[in-house]
Amino acid sequence: MSKELTSRKQDFSKWYNDLVAKADLAEHSAVRGCMVIKPNGYAIWEKMQQALDKMFKDTGHVNAYFPLLIPKSFFSKEASHVDGFAKECAVVTHYRLKNSENGIVVDPDAKLEEELIIRPTSETIIWNTYKGWIQSYRDLPLLINQWANVVRWEMRTRLFLRTAEFLWQEGHTAHATAQEAVEETERMLNVYADFVENFMAVPVIKGVKTPNERFAGALDTYCIEAMLQDGKALQAGTSHFLGQNFAKAFDVKFTNKEGVLDYVWATSWGVSTRLMGALIMSHSDDNGLIIPPKLAHTQVVIVPIYKGEEGLAKINEAVTPIKQKLEAKGISVKYDNRDTQRPGWKFAEYEMKGIPVRIAIGERDLQNGTVEVARRDELSKEVLPIEGIENNIENLLKEIQDNLYKKALARREQSTQSVDTYDEFKKAIERGGFVYAHWDGTGETEQKIKEETKATIRCIPLNNKLEKGKCIYSGLESGQRVLFAIAY
Domains of the chain: which residue ranges? Predict the structure, then answer.
């Protein structure tokens, strides 16, 4: 198997594209801007789904499904929401094709009375539905999530990070009070942070978006921000306090405990397949993909090294109890005894695909009662006894998971700095990483900085330390530093 990847130092973007292709994660489709997620990539997404779905259900949420197509009129009911998505919407205008002399054409007689929008997000269709579900405080809170696909007509696309169609989950909840809705928004932000840090092994900073960066139609957008190996930021998840905006737009009212009619309070929150991009760019190296053990579909691969059928038969017999003991620990194992490829080719394949642990076992190993164990995160090997191998591997997987997080955290800390002047700021942004700086709180200053440096305010960190200073751009008074970076 060819292992050649462009190095990260040479061209980080090309390295990423090479890796997605060579690790068999995804490929471009026949539809511009859309991707095919291949089995190796989808297996990781499924592990993400399973973990997140359990976390959602553990916090009281249930799953439902809402239509892909949304009447255009729904979007006009919440003005700021439609402004935020208007340029990205795909529109269905007809419902039938027909044969003609020029081949298949759209039937002009099959024009829809009202155009339908392929969902860029589902607030409008869901709140139109909730109107029929909510009448009393007894119907609240309504805590619903859906796993779905959405379409946002992106002009510049990159596999996983930004595609015209992508997979995600979107939670939409309704509450009796503003306080309950804010608590829900913060709770789900913490769920996302827990998942990204403890499953993906990627450290994040929790914060609130500025008004310029806020979700269209929200009163507040909370976010988690990750730093990738090239020093760029990635918004890894968002949770929105929507206030009563959508309830008022779709007339969703309830009778409270005092018998008074009021509008409900809303939240929405979501993460998408761009988390796959975050995972790849956070941990992988010039030899290929690195997957945190908690998200690896196959955590351990066993490769036999033998001569002849008799040697393979002996190893097959020895591997069976090893595999059973590992699986009894809840460890996913693949035994690759294909005779179509040499061991070296298999080693390269599993290194490229990021399998956390590789066990090699040969006839001499059987005589010694040992195996060779290679860990993907450090590209190191050691010889371990077969006796008790399941305990050693279980501990090793935990060690790899922790090591990946520690390495990512150390990298972020090394690439984070505070600056006090605009000259320092521009130099720091050019180097890459997170930059803490004072800002005067105005959208005008924020936009000027973005235009001149491409850096955006990623968030105002939660529990931020109050600190008086001068805005790096305007020189006006500032009460705290905010987090800047160039982002994907």
Answer: 12-71+125-283, 298-396, 416-485
Alpha-helical regions (H) of 376-420: 389-414
Q: What is the pLDDT of residue 190?
A: 98
Q: Which residue has the tokens 């003005």?
A: 79
At residue 152, the pLDDT reads 95
According to DSSP, the β-strands at 416-418 and 434-438 are parallel
Report the candidate in 276, 289, 291, 230 with the shortest Cα–Cα distance to residue 8: 230
**Residue 184, token pair as written in the block:** 């829900």
Asked if pLDDT for residue 85 goes beyond 90, the answer is no
Give the pTM: 0.95
The CATH code that applies to domain 416-485 is 3.30.110.30
Q: How far apart are CA 250 and CA 263, in angstroms?
A: 10
Range 298-396 classified under CATH 3.40.50.800: yes
| CB atoms near residue 27 (< 10 Å) | 13
pLDDT at 89 > cutoff 90: yes
93-125 pLDDT, tens per residue? 999 999 999 899 999 999 999 999 999 999 999
Query: For residue 459, which of 477, 439, 479 has the smallest C-alpha distance?
Result: 439
Q: Which positions ≥6 away from 292 have C-beta within 8 Å?
A: 199, 200, 201, 279, 283, 356, 400, 401, 404
The separation between the first and the last C-alpha atoms of the chain, rounded to the nearest angstrom, is 31
Q: Which CATH class is domain 12-71+125-283?
A: alpha beta
Q: Quote the strand ranges of 182-299, DSSP E.
A: 204-208, 220-227, 233-243, 253-255, 261-263, 265-272
CA-CA distance, 406 to 397, in Å (whole number)? 14
